[in-house]
Amino acid sequence: MKGDGALEVVRAPNLEKALLLLSDGRPWRLLAGGTHALDDLGARATHVLSLQSLRPELRFVFVDAHRFRAGALATLRDLATSAGVREKLPLLSSAARAQATLAIQHRATLCGTLVEGLGAVPAALYALDATFDVRSSLGSRPGQTVVTARRPGPSELLTHVHIAIPDGRARQVFAAAPEGVSVAGVLVKARRRPLAARLFAASEKARPLRLLRTEQAMALGRGGWANAITKDLDPLVPARRALAVTAAVAQHLSEALASMR
After folding, report:
1. Candidates 3.30.465.10, 2.40.50.90, 3.40.50.1360, 3.30.390.80; CATH matching 55-164
2. CB–CB of 96/79 below 8 Å?
3. By CB distance 3.0 to 4.6 Å, which of 3, 141, 146, 213 could disulfide with 130?
4. What distance in Å separates the CA atoms of residue 103 and residue 126, rounded to the nearest whole number?
């Protein structure tokens, strides 16, 4: 359908048709949950491809003892309320609840949140070393690592997200700190080995960044990580709020370590 002779909105009836439309050369803007796509529609988009009819194919959450698999149109509320996610991936469940208000959780999709790359859920997916599948009319790119992979191109569609469930030695950590900063991490302490930490922070305005200094300080086991946390979070946090944010993050990490002893 066209509005005002300029805006074309097309509802793809299924995944295959959506991929064919994306390959036709038009500058499609995708409409999944609708929380971001319409913000500047009149100024920036002339062709909108609605994916909402793909929900039977791409809105699901599956969790077993070893793996998590979700369709791209699963909502943040689906993640937050899934009993399997709460049990096996409490980090992701907490991040989904912290990402947005309840009303937006019901609409925001996993694919839209991941591609946008801002906030708690992308940080959690980075910390959990998630992978995603991308498809186009020409083929697929399965198992793309979320941290390093090339994002979907204009003719591609992110279809599924996968996570290997961390084993019983791991502790999943989520900290919602002041200034809209979220820290997500997985800590593993094996006998006679240094602590292994995988920590990412993000905000409502910044993509996830890895807290490498903090990971190294925790691996050394000497305590006093405040300086490392402050330096790692410097790109995200105003100097006047650095102390409060550092204290909140340090408390969550300390509590997680204490639970591992």
Report:
1. 3.30.465.10
2. yes
3. 146
4. 25
Regions in the chain scoring below 70 on pLDDT: 1-6, 34-45, 222-223, 261
Which amino acid would we find at residue 238? P
Angle between helices 242-260 and 212-220 (to 10 degrees): 40
**Sequence-separated (6 or more) residues with CB below 8 Å from residue 56:** none
Instruction: State the SS3 of the chain.
Output: CEECCCEEEEECCCHHHHHHHHCCCCCEEEECCCCCCCCCHHHHCCEEEECHHHHHHHCCEEECCCEEEEECCCEHHHHHHCHHHHHHCHHHHHHHHHHCCHHHHCCCEHHHHHHHCCCHHHHHHHHCCCEEEEEECCEEEEEEECCCCCCCCCCCEEEEEEEECCCCCEEEEEEECHHHCEEEEEEECCCCCCCEEEEEEEECCEEEEECHHHHHHHHHCCCCCHHHHHHHHCCCCCHHHHHHHHHHHHHHHHHHHHHHC
The pLDDT assigned to 260 comes to: 77
Q: Give the CATH architecture of domain 170-260.
A: 2-Layer Sandwich (3.30)
For the chain, which residues make up each domain, given as ranges? 2-54, 55-164, 170-260
User: How far apart are the C-alpha atoms of 184 and 54, rounded to whole Å?
Assistant: 30
Whether 129 contacts 163, CB under 8 Å: yes
CA distance 100 to 116: 14
